[in-house]
């Protein structure tokens, strides 16, 4: 056993703050920790130490602080969230939950949503938008979430309220059930100003959906995407991934997404984390596990090395690959971890927000594969893609492109304005995998009804009995 770091973590039984170590054994990376009352805990966080270290070496960040702090640091992280001054990172996206109700009853649900619950009134929602404006630097990005937000008939009014208050980008996190059954409602939220649909999408077979909730099928999901295409709204597919649930379909999900560009702008995988409601802990996978399956199932069209750290909180919070999809369905990856760290990634949150807004709305006429839209979120390729001369020129990529496109770069630039796909994974933390450093750098914040701004992983944190630290705390 080789210790490589120390961590500030939590006991999964009681959520007490405890110290731990990060260590390597048999080429794998683990966190080990011990609670005086509940004993020792060990969790695997990567099956490949070399990949783990490469991700760290491919990440540099100069962070922008939050616009405002809302409370003091007294008890220490994670018990002073609001935000407190120990938080180091501005908001990339604020999650605003407009209901705790849901119509699905999924076996996996970090929010533990049920068919009953409460909806904040419009006055409370206005205050929640005000909290976003108070704490987050411009541009401001909000994801309307829940529960299932489309259960609210006044959802268009909520979206319009956010628009009128100056929120720069608003996306809707939804299971898509109502959007499939009620096309008029989709038109209403589009007219109100929604920018993108963040669609729960766990696979391309009905068997997958039967495992989770038995209330929706693949054809309904595809119907939502087709309707979004007609109204000109971009879609991000969001698969929860668990080893014993749908890991075997990640390649098929990417292939399906590539067939639906430019309407589908991205696939955002979320490896299961054990907060709220879940059937067992046996399905846990790491980011590396997911990327390994992607490479295998895609038969090398995408490789592990094409994924770089997301320009978000921490090198191990996520991984991102940007590809251009040609007319034959071939993938042209624009990112590669071998290019090393960027020279400067100042103001990570601003760049991520610009990326969110730009990618889901589409590229303007001045954009190209090597310009602003690639620069804002390609991490290791940021400077190289931006200057149009390093990773995209004098390389095997250029040779391939020049052979595929009769006019070389001119054809490719036209293609890249629309036919791009962002494939990413976000490794949310739970009480077993918790590292305080990652949470202090978090840029995904949940805005609460009582005016708090809480990092996502802290807000959804539960002990092994499913008891929350913050959610439902009032």
Task: Give the gist of this structure.
By secondary structure, the protein is of the alpha/beta class.
Radius of gyration: 21 Å
> What's the architecture, going by CATH?
Alpha-Beta Barrel
- What is the top-level CATH class? Alpha Beta
What distance lies between the first and last C-alpha atoms, to the nearest angstrom?
Answer: 44 Å
Count of individual domains = 1
Classified in CATH, the superfamily is Aldolase class I
Overall 3D shape: globular
- Specify the structural class: alpha/beta
Mean pLDDT: 84
**Helical stretch count?**
16
Low-confidence stretches: 341-348, 362-403
Number of strands: 17
Strand proportion, as a percent range, falls in 15-25%
Q: Largest sheet, described in full?
A: 13 strands, mixed
CATH topology: TIM Barrel
Helical content (DSSP H or I, runs of 4+):
25-40%
Question: Can you tell me about this structure?
Answer:
- Strands 5, 6, 7, 8, 9, 10, 11, 12, 13, 14, 15, 16 and 17 form a 13-stranded mixed sheet that branches.
- The chain has 16 helices and 17 strands.
- The protein is an alpha/beta fold and 474 residues long.
- 29% of the residues lie in helices and 20% in strands.
- It has a single domain (93-426), classed as TIM Barrel.
- The relative contact order is 0.15.
- A hairpin with a 6-residue loop joins strand 1 (2-10) and strand 2.
- Residues 341-348 and 362-403 have low confidence and may be disordered.
- The chain has helices spanning 49-57, 122-135, 155-164, 177-181, 183-192, 206-212, 218-231, 250-259, 287-297, 348-361, 372-375, 382-386, 396-404, 409-416, 436-440, 456-459; strands spanning 2-10, 17-25, 28-35, 39-46, 93-97, 141-145, 169-174, 196-200, 234-238, 240-241, 264-271, 308-309, 318-325, 331-333, 420-426, 444-447, 453-455.
- The chain is globular and about 55 Å long.
